[in-house]
Amino acid sequence: MPQADVNGTMLNYRFDGPEGGDIVMFSNSLASDLAMWDLQVPFLNEAGYRVLRYDSRGHGRSAAPPGPYSIDMLASDAVGLADVLGLGRFHFCGLSLGGMVGQMLGALHGGRLLSLILCDTSPFMGNKEVWEERFRRVRKDGMAGVVDETIDRWFTKAGQARIPEEVEKVRRMIRGTPVEGYCGSGAAISELDLRETIRGISTRTLVIVGEQDPGTPVSAAELIHSRIRSSTLTIIPEAAHFVNVEQSGLFNKALLQFLAS
User: Fold this and answer.
1) Backbone phi, psi, residue 90, to 5°
2) Residue 65: which domain range?
3) CB-based contact 155:167 (threshold 8 Å)
4) Each residue's pLDDT expressed in tens, for the chain with a length of 261 residues
5) pTM for this predicted structure
6) 160/37 Cα distance (integer angstroms)
């Protein structure tokens, strides 16, 4: 897959779909890569959209420079990649960390966006002690030390039993995440506070959340929805954090309806 030099960092990216279609840009969560969106690409392509996926800095095949990172930095990477690729306006969809990037894009670069989709994310995290403990663990034991607990946050037990192959693919993504990228991006999440910033978003926005998400719960999605006047909220049943994988059919339907509306 091609790479682009963006803000001094090499970012891995991939296009799929018709060249003349509107661009939908996808941004991955912490400890995953662009393959997390595999179940969305065929449906969007069939509907005529051109999909742009990229590995956030510190993830997948992108470079993992020393941290800490910030949400400002990661949002600058996203719009910088769009600039390098010569894109005009585009739809943007991000989950978790990617949704935090999307919130910042909406606030600072709303003129570049056709629409904004914020999935299982939050404008504020806190719990710095929890994050510091995770950083200590992965620096000592590698990403294997957080795989099981991450999977249990990202998927319901029923989902893990129903779609074991997809869950295993996500498990491999977590294991393959560079420790520096995990810690650098985790630092950005632990410092996040966009609760007032998102009031400035005027882009048409869809907020999606899994009904059983323990990390970025329905209450966080409701907070985002309450502060972005142009937003609608969709709660997906029988899903935790990785709603686009665990309930891909419902997610894809909601996404396509929103894009086409």
Assistant:
1) -155, 155
2) 3-260
3) yes
4) 899 999 999 999 999 999 999 999 999 999 999 999 999 999 999 999 999 999 999 999 999 999 999 999 999 999 999 999 999 999 999 999 999 999 999 999 999 999 999 999 999 997 889 999 999 999 999 999 999 999 999 999 999 999 999 999 999 999 999 999 999 999 999 999 999 999 999 999 999 999 999 999 999 999 999 999 999 999 999 999 999 999 999 999 999 999 999
5) 0.97
6) 18
Q: For position 147, which CATH number holds?
A: 3.40.50.1820
* Contact assessment for residue 106 and residue 79, using Cβ atoms and an 8 Å cutoff: no
Structure tokens at 53: 């996926």
| Biggest distance spanned by C-alpha atoms of the chain | 48
Contact 135, 186 (CB under 8 A): yes
How many domains would you assign to the chain? Answer: 1
What DSSP element (H or E) covers 189?
Answer: helix 179-190
CA 167, CA 250: separation in Å to the nearest integer?
A: 18
CA atoms within 13 A on the CB side of 100: 28
